TrEMBL record:
It is a multi-pass membrane protein. Its main location: membrane. The lineage of its organism: Eukaryota, Metazoa, Chordata, Craniata, Vertebrata. This is Glycoprotein M6B. PANTHER family: MYELIN PROTEOLIPID (PTHR11683), NEURONAL MEMBRANE GLYCOPROTEIN M6-B (PTHR11683:SF10). One of its GO terms (cellular component) is plasma membrane. The chain crosses the membrane at residues 34-62, 82-107, 128-161, 220-244. One of its GO terms (biological process) is central nervous system myelination. It is found in: Membrane. Belongs to the myelin proteolipid protein family. Keywords: Membrane, Transmembrane, Transmembrane helix. It comes from Seriola lalandi dorsalis. GO terms for molecular function: structural constituent of myelin sheath.
Length: 261
């Protein structure tokens, strides 16, 4: 029979073994890829969700106040509907791509930490990792363009909002005729020059700024732009993580490399 001291030693060894196992498991988590995945999902969700609703509000504002004839903004309506369908595709793609990159991060981190005894890399695995590096760089550059594009409606709505805020100023009312202040959306190329009325002036412009569609769309565009910026940051983290993972796999494929890090 075992003595009480031997039983205590066995219990301490079991506890130590569980602790070491937990440390190894935590060491195998790709924290950079995990943070990038959470940030990417959040950014894409904000961009797609808020952007979809904001585009719908923009069409309502244009149809109600700036383009009363349907044929004048028919092309713009088709483009906005196409962009909304593209948003669905972007959300689906990045949900799948984020999961794949996270799985690739777990795979490579296991190779680095050698959690599964001797880890052998293959040419196919290195090619897949290199493909992820290339694709992530392409997506990063593309999302820089998306981020810049998403700032355009924020700029347009801010111009209208700042004009309305200036018209409410008492000093502005004393020095300037309010009805002479106009916002013409035709100059931005949103609707054609023959669209009627095409612009809003004075009190009409102030009423537009007070509508729920304008207020909601303006703030949703800001959130969508912030979501695009968060996605860019997530892709930058993915770039660093995938590049490091590829370098590690290539290094471990060498027969003369050190097997202990």
């Amino acid at each position: 029979m075992e003595t009480p001291s031997e039983e205590n030693q066995d219990q301490r060894q079991d506890k130590r073994g569980c602790f070491e196992c937990c440390i190894k498991c935590l060491g195998g988590v790709p924290y950079a890829s995990l943070v990038a995945t959470i940030l990417c999902f959040s950014g894409v969700a904000l961009f797609c969700g808020c952007g979809h609703v904001a585009l719908t509000g923009t069409v309502t504002i244009l149809e109600t106040h700036f383009s009363k004839v349907t044929s004048d903004h028919a092309m713009l309506t088709d483009v906005i509907q196409l962009m909304q369908y593209v948003i669905y595709g972007i959300a689906s793609f990045f949900f799948l791509y984020g999961i794949i990159l996270l799985a690739e991060g777990f795979y490579t981190t296991s190779a680095v930490k050698e959690l599964h005894s001797e880890f052998k890399t293959t040419i196919c695995g290195r090619c897949i990792s290199g493909m992820f590096v290339f694709l992530t760089y392409i997506l990063g550059v593309a999302w820089l363009g998306v981020f810049g594009f998403s700032a355009v409606p924020v700029f347009l709505f801010y111009n209208m909002w700042s004009t309305c805020a200036a018209m409410r100023s008492p000093m502005f009312n004393l020095t300037t005729n309010i009805e002479s202040i106009c916002v013409d959306v035709r100059q931005y190329g949103i609707i054609p020059w023959n669209a009627t009325p095409g612009k809003a002036c004075g009190s009409t412009l102030g009423d537009i700024c007070n509508t729920s569609e304008f207020y909601l769309s303006y703030h949703l565009y800001i959130v969508a732009c912030a979501g695009a910026g968060a996605t860019v940051i997530a892709l930058l983290i993915y770039m660093m993580a995938t590049t490091y993972n590829f370098a590690v796999l290539k290094f471990k494929s060498r027969e003369d490399c050190c097997t202990k890090f």
